[in-house]
Amino acid sequence: MALRLSTAGESHGPALVAIVEGLPAGLTLGRDAIDADLRRRQDGYGRSPRQRIEQDEVEVLAGLRHGRTLGTPLALVVRNRDHANWEWGMSPWPPEGEPSGKGTKPVTLPRPGHADFAGALKHGLADARDALERASARHTAVHVAAGAVAKALLATIGVALEGAAVDEEALRARTDEARAERDTVGGTVEVRVRGVPPGLGSYATKDERLDARIAAALMGIQAVKGVEIGEGFALAGLRGSEAHDELLPGFARETNRAGGLEAGVTNGEDVVARAAMKPLPTLMRPLRSVDLATGDPGEALVERSDVAAVEALAVVAEAAVAWELARAAREKFGGDSLDDFLAAHRAYLERIPWAPR
Ligand code: EPS
Question: Which among 8, 93, 206, 351 counts the fewest CB atoms within 10 Å?
Fold first, then answer.
């Protein structure tokens, strides 16, 4: 049973859309739980005034009846309230009337670090807005909605996730300093997953290795430049005798340097993944750039943006890891109804010498 996710949506277009396929029938979803994650994503320290415009809420257009999944594609929508200010500039159809609002002038001065330059060249765009709108991290809102659905499925088998910024206090201090100097900062987030049974993922092929899938899911989030599982890069400097997690009677372990994954398969310990985010590329004191239309030197586009989005990334990363684990759980336990899925999980736990801690 393959869990699949497709999304669409531009940052200042009418809405963000996700279609989730492969859920079992009979999973109860709570609107409040999904909206709470959307709220958490918006609330992170250092966000732009855009977050006062948006009040993200999920709408469900298909696949759910009376709060329970039907086993059919689930269609999720998060509207962009800011679209009201971009109705002409981001009109899906040729706009009527005189240009008004935002997005009426072409963006020709690419921001180093954003999609503007590479996107404009790749697609032959005269206006880099045609690239940056989709590349924007606004898109992560609908991934968080889909991640909340994945978390609801995982909760039925006792799997719980938590994403947080690493050293939140220091991050907030750095954010304040950067704001005062009209600059931006990045940072690191960690996602920890409890209750994961051993045996999710596979060592059989590269594509099925769950560590690789989690890494791709995290690296696929805007502005992420580094990912590690467990002790990750630090393991490279250790001896084998110091790096691995010994098995003790009862198959217990005293350490979890592997981050819950050995050979791309979960080993029953907490899954731990970290992602490093670069400082955001929209700068109020812009970097040097070159005009796409004229080739003249200039300064990169300046527009409203965040000082930091690291705390938001923690929520987005949690959703991404939840999605990959839910996908792996669907592969292992299958089932067209939630009861079938739960029965397969129960039978498996009866077979193996492992119990959730
Ligand atoms: C983003 C730029 C900013 C962020 C946006 C991501 O948008 P705006 O230019 O409209 O202020 O606020 O993130 C969101 C809107 C969001 O909801 O996360 C970018 O260029 O990636």
Answer: 93
Q: Which two tokens stand for residue 346?
A: 């129960």
Domain that holds residue 221: 105-351
Nearest of 72, 59, 58 to residue 25 by alpha carbon: 72
Cα 14 to ligand 1 centre (Å): 14
Contacts (Cβ under 8 Å, ≥6 apart) of 29:
60, 64, 67, 68, 69, 149, 152
Number of domains in the chain: 1
Q: How far is the CA of 221 from the centre of ligand 1 (A)?
A: 13
How much distance in Å is there from the Cα of 307 to the middle of ligand 1?
11
Residue ranges of the chain whose pLDDT lies below 70? none
Given this model, what pLDDT does residue 304 score?
Answer: 86
Instruction: Assign residue 246 the CATH number of its domain.
Output: 3.60.150.10
pLDDT of 357: 79
Q: What is the pLDDT of residues 102-131, one digit of tens each?
A: 999 999 999 999 999 999 999 999 999 999
- Tell me if 50 CB under 6 Å of ligand 1: yes
117 belongs to a structural domain:
yes
**Best of 43, 48, 78 for a ligand 1 pocket test (most atoms within 8 Å of beta carbon):** 48
